Automatic annotation (TrEMBL):
This is TetR/AcrR family transcriptional regulator. Pfam families: TetR_C_11, TetR_N. Gene3D superfamilies: Homeodomain-like, Tetracycline Repressor, domain 2. The keyword Zinc does not apply. Residues 42-61 bind DNA. Residues 19-79 form the HTH tetR-type domain. Keywords: DNA-binding, Transcription, Transcription regulation.
Length: 209
């Protein structure tokens, strides 16, 4: 790869000073997204806030989309592990609580709105966003596997679909209807997902899955 071409963000795990530069730039990117959103994201300002030469930022990340894409990969790496409460209901309520906490935190809500907006207009960013959620679903999938081992659900239950059913109503209110989000919404989402899972709605291979 020539010096004039930006590296594909997230394809190389940096170490030492390179890792510190990446951390500073991604932190500055997150700050900027939280403050002004994606469409106002400015490479020069991110470089200045990170204390990094703008030539480095342009060479490595290339565009604002490159910054957002790498930030999403970093967020996936830093995400919290799944819960293990001993019951499927407890685990799903922990999952819903984590999603709710993220989407109602003023800073993180602004960041997620910004990255979702970026994904809507750029396929590379959309791929990174899918990767972020794929990582989170994979991290949490064992809660359903454990539930099938305990006999709480049928063995052919699709774990990913159960988890999507928990978070989807929260994201709908967050991004589409812009309605208030609170514990009552999370509780209803969990109750609906549990009822559907116990009824076999999420059986692997079932029509619609």
């Amino acid at each position: 790869m020539s010096e004039s071409q930006p590296a594909v963000p997230g394809t190389v795990r940096p170490g030492g000073r390179t890792a510190k530069v990446r951390a500073a730039v991604l932190e500055a990117t997150e700050d900027a997204l939280a403050a002004t959103g994606f469409h106002a994201l400015n490479m020069d300002q991110v470089a200045a806030a990170a204390g990094v030469g703008k030539t480095t930022v342009y060479r490595r990340w290339g565009t604002p989309v490159g910054l957002v894409t790498d930030l999403l990969r970093d967020m996936a790496d830093r995400s919290l592990p799944s819960a293990d409460t001993g019951t499927l209901e407890g685990d799903l309520r922990a999952n819903a609580a984590l999603v709710l906490k993220t989407l109602t935190d003023p800073r993180m809500a602004a960041v997620f709105r910004a990255v979702i907006a970026a994904a809507a207009c750029d396929e590379d960013c959309a791929d990174a966003l899918r990767g972020f959620y794929r990582a989170r679903l994979t991290e949490w999938a064992p809660v359903v596997a454990r539930a099938t081992e305990r006999g709480e659900l049928d063995a052919d239950t699709d774990a990913v679909e159960v988890l999507r059913a928990v978070s989807a109503p929260l994201y709908y209110r967050f991004m589409i209807s812009r309605e208030p989000l609170g514990p009552d919404v999370a509780d209803r989402a969990v109750n609906a997902a549990l009822a559907a899972a116990r009824a076999g709605v999420f059986a692997a291979g079932r029509a619609g899955n």
